[in-house]
Amino acid sequence: VLGLALNYGARTEIVDAIRKIAQEYKDGKLQFDAIDQACVGNHLYTAGWHDPDLLIRTSGEMRISNFLLWQVSYTEFYVTETLWPDFDADDLDEAVRAYAGRSRRFGDIKSRHADSPRPSEGRG
């Protein structure tokens, strides 16, 4: 699935989800104990979609830019210096190849390679 976000902001999306949840709770349609991660996800604009596996960031920018803040928690990022208007099928193929070569951990640090530095150790 390819999703395009026009006039979208993740902070607004999260606030809207919280408001919907609060209203359902206030109306007695939702129990307090039912409010969990799945509940929040079900109230986001992307409810029913899978979280992205890969996010391609063009123009070399190393930031999320208020984009899918909830949904990208375990997404793999690919950053390219190519500008969006110049991004073509070859660039997409390269991003997909890079993604295919990764070992996804979904937050599990146990799978970290023994020779990989810990985040606090830096990279040289």
Mind summarizing the main beta sheet?
2 strands, parallel
Low-confidence stretches: 118-124
Global Rg: 18 Å
How much strand content do the residues show?
5-15%
Strand order of the largest sheet: 1-2
Report the principal-axis shape.
elongated
- In terms of structural class, how would the helical and strand content be classed? mainly alpha
Order of helices and strands: HHEEH
Distance between the termini: 38 Å
Tally of alpha and pi helices: 3
The count of β-strands is: 2
In terms of quaternary structure, the protein is single chain
- Give the number of domains: 2
Average pLDDT figure: 88
**Helix content estimate:** 25-40%
Pfam families: Prenyltransf
GO molecular function: ditrans,polycis-polyprenyl diphosphate synthase [(2E,6E)-farnesyl diphosphate specific] activity
Keywords: Transferase
GO biological process, one term: polyprenol biosynthetic process
Features:
single chain, 124 residues, mainly alpha, 2 domains, two-stranded parallel ribbon, 3 helices, disordered C terminus
